[in-house]
Amino acid sequence: MSYTTSYYHIVIRTYRSEPTINEEHERELYAYIYGIAKNLKCQTYRIGGIADHIHMFVSLPSYLSLASFVQRVKTDSSKWLKANPHFPRFCGWGREYAGFSYSLRDKDMIVGYIKKQKEHHRKNTFAEEHRAFLTENGVSIDERYFLRDD
Questions:
Q1: 141 within some domain
Q2: Tens digit of each residue's pLDDT (9 = 90 or more) over 54-89
Q3: For residue 107, with 0-12 CB atoms within 10 Å meaning exposed, 13-18 middle and 19 or more buried, which class applies?
């Protein structure tokens, strides 16, 4: 038997960063995504966000890549959101996503960060947060493609 753990902080934004996840029903979306993760044998520690993006902190089993997990979450939740009358303006998820690995000792920090999304975004836009997040994690940003879905 192999012993592995993979913890990821994942950020997914809505198509064109449109504010299409309404606060009144966001917990329905989070529960649906939690179900997707559970079916894939993933552990979800926290999901949260605001109208134009979500954050997740999850651990993935060794046989599931980050890209495969995000693709399933985006595909399955997009179908559900488009069919759900509580999200009438949802058009889809943005093309890109951010996903960074962490260790278990970072769990409380990341979970706390996700819990404070609404408070955090009273001061910062998603674009500001995303740029800082990428820079902090050593990702070079190509301005031609930054937050573009066209």
A1: no
A2: 999 999 999 999 999 999 999 999 999 999 999 999
A3: middle
7-21, 88-102, 132-146: least confident range: 132-146
**Which pLDDT value is given to residue 4?**
84
Find the farthest-apart pair of alpha carbons in the chain and give their distance in angstroms, rounded: 47
- Over residues 21-50, the pLDDT tens digits come to 999 999 999 999 999 999 999 999 999 999
Q: How many domains are contained in the chain?
A: 1
Is residue 90 included in any domain, yes or no? yes
Contact 19, 51 (CB under 8 A): yes
For residues 116 and 119, what is the distance between their CA atoms, to the nearest angstrom? 5
Instruction: Name the nearest CA neighbour of 137 among 16, 8, 45.
Output: 8
Q: Which domain holds residue 51?
A: 7-135
Query: Which of 126, 64, 119 has the alpha carbon at shortest distance from 97?
Result: 126
Instruction: Identify whether 146 is part of a domain.
Output: no
In total, the chain counts a number of residues equal to: 150
Question: Any bridge partners for residue 55, and if so which?
Answer: 11, 48
CATH of the domain at 85: 3.30.70.1290
